[in-house]
């Protein structure tokens, strides 16, 4: 059976159970549902003659496991930290080493997917603590996100989208909850996200830029316009950005980022981007839908129960960066998925809009659009990816 059939059956089961029984015990329901949804990831394998990164990571685990068998656990760890392709990312190398100690490679994909889903649930639970939103709407939103997002990208890639969802969770803790006692944990999560995948660094920079708006001289429309324009046109400054990275390339992690920037920040033709034209077009359509959603939010938003303004500004900057990355295909495609994760608080606000308001028809139109598009997205990912993966 292919991954797509198992996955959609699990999503339907989880949605039905959530609507029937999960409303009063949302945290426990999310925990159990995350276990269920992550189960197929333990057993995925590509069809014959199809290559996915699951094969690359499995081969790497086997390689580390072989070193462990010869040199012991510590020897395997040393090899992972010093000689593996992730030697410049000790957190990733150590993480892979842990799973090499287990005999079955599927644990890496299953456990990592479960962690990803837990952080996704954590975003929704954070929102529930802050705003008077219904559990039903949060369950529906989670289903919409999972149908719109290609979960197999997380399963096979391990790092990128895990880093993104950790950042998105940390941002809700940092900006929406704004709890001073959790600030240290938030900063640690930001750091972990960057160490897992350096592409998260730009979003941490955006968070820092938004933080300067607390200073009165920067809390202006001109400040926001400047940064929006900068992110839209940042490609013009690629040479400067890369030269700065090169100056600090003596630091192992910075050198890794610098080397990756050679591939990702100079524009990529389709044959170098590891993405089909259909994937680029459809993922761009996701960005269009998210931008329409943002417009809907700005139309109906009021002070009551509105999402924190600093969060909205960070979201706007992130959209500008994503659009500005259009020529850098992989950066562009991955950033769109980050926008999808960051859109969760906006979705929660729109799904819980007061239906007695004059804008009720706009909201109903939005809800129909977003659910319909989630179905279309799942169908696209099914035919382009899920059908090529077996359980």
Features:
mainly alpha, 19 helices
Give a description of the structure.
The protein is mainly alpha-helical and 391 residues long. The protein has one domain (3-42, 105-390). Helices cover 74% and strands 1% of the residues. The protein is built from 19 helices and two strands. It has helices at 3-22, 26-38, 53-82, 90-100, 106-130, 135-148, 151-157, 160-177, 183-196, 201-211, 221-232, 238-247, 252-264, 270-273, 277-300, 309-324, 329-342, 344-351, 360-384, and strands at 45-46, 389-390. Strands 1-2 form a two-stranded antiparallel sheet. Helix 1 packs antiparallel against helix 6 (135-148), helix 8 (160-177) runs antiparallel to helix 9 (183-196) and helix 10 (201-211) packs across helix 16 (309-324). It is globular. It starts with a helix and ends with a strand. The model has no long low-confidence stretch (mean pLDDT 88).
């Amino acid at each position: 059976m292919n991954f797509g059939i198992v996955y959609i059956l699990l999503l339907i089961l989880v949605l039905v159970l959530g609507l029937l029984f999960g409303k009063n015990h949302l945290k426990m329901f999310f925990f159990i549902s995350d276990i269920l949804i992550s189960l197929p990831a333990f057993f995925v394998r590509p069809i014959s003659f199809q290559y996915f990164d699951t094969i690359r990571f499995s081969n790497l685990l086997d390689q580390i496991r072989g070193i462990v068998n010869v040199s012991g656990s510590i020897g395997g760890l040393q090899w992972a930290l010093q000689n593996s392709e992730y030697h410049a990312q000790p957190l990733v190398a150590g993480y892979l080493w842990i799973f090499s100690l287990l005999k079955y490679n599927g644990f890496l994909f299953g456990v990592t997917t479960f962690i990803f889903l837990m952080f996704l649930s954590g975003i929704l639970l954070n929102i529930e603590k802050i705003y008077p939103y219904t559990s039903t709407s949060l369950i529906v939103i989670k289903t919409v996100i999972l149908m719109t997002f290609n979960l197999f990208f997380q399963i096979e890639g391990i790092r990128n989208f895990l880093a993104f969802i950790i950042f998105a969770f940390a941002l809700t803790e940092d900006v929406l909850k704004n709890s001073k006692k959790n600030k240290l944990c938030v900063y640690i999560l930001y750091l972990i996200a960057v160490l897992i995948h350096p592409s998260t660094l730009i979003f941490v920079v955006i968070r820092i830029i938004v933080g300067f708006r607390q200073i009165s001289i920067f809390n202006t429309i001109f400040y926001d316009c400047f940064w929006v324009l900068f992110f839209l046109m940042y490609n013009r400054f690629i040479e400067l950005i890369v030269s700065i990275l090169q100056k600090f390339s003596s630091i192992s992690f910075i050198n890794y980022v610098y080397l990756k920037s050679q591939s990702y920040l100079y524009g990529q033709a389709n044959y170098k981007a590891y993405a089909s034209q259909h994937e680029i077009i459809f993922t761009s359509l996701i960005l269009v839908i998210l931008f329409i959603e943002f417009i809907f939010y700005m139309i109906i938003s009021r002070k009551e129960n509105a999402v924190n303004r600093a969060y909205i500004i960070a979201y706007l900057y992130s959209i500008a960066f994503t659009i500005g990355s259009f020529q850098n295909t992989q950066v562009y495609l991955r950033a769109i998925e980050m926008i999808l994760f960051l859109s969760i608080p906006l979705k929660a606000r729109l799904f819980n809009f007061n239906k007695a308001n004059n804008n009720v028809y706009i909201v109903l139109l939005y809800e129909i659009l977003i659910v319909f598009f989630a179905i279309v997205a799942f169908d696209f990912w099914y035919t382009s990816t899920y059908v090529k993966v077996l359980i």
